[in-house]
Specification:
There is one protein chain. The protein is an alpha/beta fold. The protein has one domain (2-223): Rossmann fold (3-Layer(aba) Sandwich). 27% of the residues lie in helices and 29% in strands. It has helices at 37-51, 69-78, 94-108, 127-135, 188-194, 235-244; strands at residues 2-6, 9-11, 18-19, 26-27, 33-35, 57-64, 82-87, 112-116, 138-149, 152-159, 162-169, 172-176, 200-203. The strands form three sheets. It has a nine-stranded mixed beta sheet with strand order 11-10-9-12-8-1-6-7-13, sandwiched between helices. Helix 2 (69-78) packs across helix 5 and helix 3 packs across helix 4 (127-135). It is globular and about 65 Å long. 35% of the residues are buried. The mean pLDDT is 92.
Length: 249
């Protein structure tokens, strides 16, 4: 079994981003970048499947500039077998990424495509679903557990009402939730060895895919400030305050 894992380069989750003065976007100049946390869960789950003897090969793929090599090397340091960088200078939105991923899937022919349920920069949470639709295969989104039995993936999904269990016939697209696992700590020797491993590169133009943006970002702004909360002594006072605020009639 071959597993393809998509990884995205995002601002490190410990960094507080700032908005550019003109409100056109967030300012990421000079800030620390790292692998998208949900994608790291996807890599970890692929490695666990390989350790159980279910998977034979794990291929990590990323889309963007040469700077994306750092997240691919992180995946290699964790234990991925190969890394593929699809180079492009274009702004990629979820549909564009899904189209490029479709082309890579057709090239690599994996049994499972694993990726994070969302990226922490845009929080769109759309790429996995779009990819499954483009490929015409089953999907398991927001998964918190995964087992492979025969030609099916048995997954537990996080839903509004709790969880649900479904069986998805392979090949399939699966998106990882943070509850799926705890990614392993990457040791320095593994990072050093990963720096010496080759990363295959190809141009997005070679995949003959239309990745033009469908959406236009109009403005970025801080969320409105919330009013400070207050403490009440008992339920009666709480109800009285709610009446005063017009929240109860």
């Amino acid at each position: 079994m071959k597993i393809l894992v998509a990884v995205k380069r995002v601002v490190d989750h410990n960094i507080q981003v700032r908005i550019k003065p003109d409100g056109s976007d967030v300012d990421i100049a000079g800030v620390k970048m790292s692998i998208n946390p949900f994608d790291e869960n996807a890599v970890e789950e692929a490695l666990r499947l390989k350790e159980r003897g279910v998977a034979k090969e794990i291929v990590a793929v990323s889309f963007g500039t040469a700077a994306n090599q750092d997240v691919l090397r992180h995946a290699l340091a964790m234990g991925a077998d190969r890394a593929l960088l699809v180079e492009t200078e274009s702004e990629l939105q979820p549909l564009g990424v899904a189209k490029l991923l479709k082309a890579v899937v057709q090239r690599e022919q994996p049994d499972i495509v694993l990726l994070g349920k969302q990226a922490i920069d845009d929080d769109a949470g759309q790429t996995g679903q779009m990819l499954a639709a483009l490929l015409g295969v089953g999907q398991g989104t927001f998964i918190s557990s995964l087992n492979i039995e025969g030609d099916e993936a048995l997954v537990t999904r996080e839903i509004d009402g709790g969880t649900e269990q479904i069986a998805v016939r392979l090949p399939a697209v699966l998106t990882a939730d943070l509850r799926l696992n705890d990614p392993r700590f990457v040791k320095l020797p593994n990072l050093m060895m990963a720096k010496k491993k080759p990363i295959e590169s190809l141009s997005a133009a070679e995949l003959s895919t239309d990745t033009a943006p469908r959406l236009k970002q109009v403005k970025v702004s801080e969320p409105p400030a919330r009013k400070p909360g207050i403490k009440v002594n008992d339920v009666q006072e709480l109800i009285a305050k709610l009446h005063e605020e017009g929240m109860l009639s």
